[in-house]
Amino acid sequence: MRLFTPEAMRAADAQAVELGYPSLLLMEAAGRAVAEAARAAWPEAESYAVVAGKGNNGGDGLVAARWLHLWGREVRVYAPEGHRGDAALARAALAAHLEIEPLEAVDLREADVVVDALFGTGLTRPLEGAWAELAERINAADRPVVAVDVPSGLPYAPHVRADLTVALAGLKPDHVFYPGRSACGRIQLAPIGLPPALLEPRELPELLDPETMRALLPSRPGHAHKGSVGRVLVVGGAAEYTGAPALAALGAYRAGAGLVTVAYPSDARVDPPLEAVRLPVSRWQDARLFEAKAEALAVGMGGGSGGGAAARAALKLKKPTVLDADALYPEVVKAYAAAAVPTVITPHPGEAARLLETGVGTVVQDPLGSACELARRFRTTAVLKGGPTVLCEPGRAAVNTTGNPAMATGGAGDVLSGAIAAFLAAGLAPWDAARLGVYLHGLAGDHLGRIGLTAHELAEALPVVREKLELGYLRPYWEAGLLSPR
Ligand SMILES: NC(=O)C1=CN([C@@H]2O[C@H](COP(=O)(O)OP(=O)(O)OC[C@H]3O[C@@H](n4cnc5c(N)ncnc54)[C@H](OP(=O)(O)O)[C@@H]3O)[C@@H](O)[C@H]2O)[C@@H](O)CC1
Ligand SMILES: [K+]
Fold first, then answer.
1. Is 30 in the pocket of ligand 1 (CB under 6 A)?
2. Is 127 close to ligand 1, i.e. is its CB under 6 Å away?
3. 258 CB less than 6 Å from ligand 1?
4. Whose CA is nearest to atom 16 of ligand 1?
5. In order along the chain (486 residues), what is the average pLDDT of each group of 10 residues?
6. How far is the CA of 23 from the centre of ligand 1 (A)?
7. Is 388 touching ligand 1 by the criterion CB < 6 Å?
8. Under CATH, to which class is 6-202 assigned?
9. Ligand 1 binding pocket includes 119 (Cβ within 6 Å)
10. Whose CB among 90, 257, 352, 427 lies 3.0–4.6 Å from 347's, allowing a Cys bridge?
11. In which residues is K(+) bound (predicted)?
């Protein structure tokens, strides 16, 4: 599954038409899918109000109105004049059954459900005047709202707030990024007949789904031993951050590492898990660091002001490395790129801004663009943490579909770095280790769910959700009937 920009969606649509697929069939499938989704979501509803706009989103609404009417529901339809193309045909088909009232007559008092078909992906600017007023009225009516494709007005304000959004053909940024996502309510993806080949353009970001992630899980052969399934060296810790390396070690073990060694300054009271090998060093150039048995490293967590020095020392091992927190300085990450060491960097927006020498606001406003700039500038796999976490490496990008705001808690990032390092150590390429680590970590957060969860619990939940994934129990959130994780 890919994340479609409105332009990419239009391009797929146009390609289907070029291949000979009649565009009216797409609109018919879209409108009917909306009607079916509304009927399934509110089976008791008898009366509907369909508020349609002047473009194809409105056309979809007119098709939905016809089907709801044919199924015996009470339907009032409000739409402006002047539809063109397929929307005009949808209007003609509806007009054979029902009177279409002007938008000035909108009355939502008798409606059990409101269908919002004002604007979809063709919106080019914020709603104003009468259009803005209509969106506000839909919200004020306090009725269940089903949005056609996207809640009208997004990504700007004002916009409709829906209970159910029927995403047509593919998911778009407002179904995935905030604030759009919180205005969508439940999200249901409706295939409308586009040929599957048009729905997987490789240049668009991938939305992580359970099936793809399951295929990445490293296998555990019967003759496995602790030295054969991936050993991780965690390098970090400082006087004031003693928990971070311990949580990274726990994350690595809970993601399946065979052996974890934790190297930390001997004057810091780091307390690694009982199962870890301890490597207190009085200086980062200690020879024992370079002899540590590990196939991958997690570096920088809780490193404080010594994080850069720790990362420079760890670079000498020349092993695949996750760079986090106090290792995330431009000169450090550039040194790894220059040494051609495979890296995954895991910044939060503040650290990403530091690396890109820009403001946090810029990063938050365009997470995908920022992650891709990090990947390009530092020749690395970039994991930009957030809601949702996005990933990029030169030539490809992905958006995570698991996780929730309860995971905004101290130490959660350390667990993630440890988990990604465990997958690197198991032999996965940086892109696969990063995607799998991020996906499982979010899944652990969704499994725990409640605000107040701790990083420690996140690590503990990793084997539980891994098993669910392995057994094929999971479905992507956009499949019918599933709640989007906020
Ligand atoms: N595979 C697919 O993708 C399929 C997509 N389908 C559907 O098509 C939808 C996209 O349809 P669309 O392109 O006609 O755009 P839509 O959102 O109806 O609005 C366009 C109109 O709004 C206007 N306008 C813009 N901003 C405005 C503003 N602020 N305030 C006022 N007016 C504004 C703009 O004109 P403008 O004023 O900019 O000249 C234009 O007249 C998509 O979401 C899906 O529902 C399906 O039918 C089948 C297959
Ligand atoms: K809409």
1. yes
2. yes
3. no
4. 122
5. 94 95 97 97 97 98 98 98 98 98 97 98 97 98 97 97 97 93 93 93 95 96 95 94 95 98 94 95 94 96 92 97 97 98 98 98 97 98 97 97 94 98 98 98 93 97 97 80 46
6. 15
7. no
8. alpha beta
9. yes
10. 352
11. 57, 116, 152
Output the 3-class SS for the chain.
CEECCHHHHHHHHHHHHHCCCCHHHHHHHHHHHHHHHHHHHCCCCCEEEEEECCCHHHHHHHHHHHHHHHCCCEEEEECCCCCCHHHHHHHHHHHCCCCEECHHHCCCCCCCEEEEECCCCCCCCCCCHHHHHHHHHHHHCCCCEEEECCCCCCCCCCCCCCCEEEEECCECHHHHCCCHHHHHCEEEEECCCCCHHHHCCCCCCEECCHHHHHHHCCCCCCCCCCCCCCEEEEECCECCECHHHHHHHHHHHHCCCCEEEEEEECCCCCCCCCCCEEEEECCCCCHHHHHCCCCEEEECCCCHHHHHHHHHHHHHHCCCEEECHHHCCHHHHHHHHHCCCCEEECCCHHHHHHHHCCCHHHHHHCHHHHHHHHHHHHCCEEEECCCCCEEEECCEEEECCCCCHHHCCCCHHHHHHHHHHHHHHCCCCHHHHHHHHHHHHHHHHHHHCCCCCCHHHHHHHHHHHHHHHHCCCCCCCCCCCCCCCC
Please tell me the distance between residue 195's alpha carbon and the centre of ligand 1 in angstroms.
22
What distance in angstroms lies between residue 64's CA and the mean position of ligand 2's atoms?
12
Residues of each annotated binding site for AMP: 385-389, 413
- Indicate whether residue 151 lines ligand 1 (CB < 6 A): no
The alpha carbon of 181 and the centre of ligand 2 are apart by a number of angstroms equal to: 14
Q: What is the CATH number of domain 210-470?
A: 3.40.1190.20
Hey, where are the domains in the chain? 6-202, 210-470
pLDDT score at 473: 86
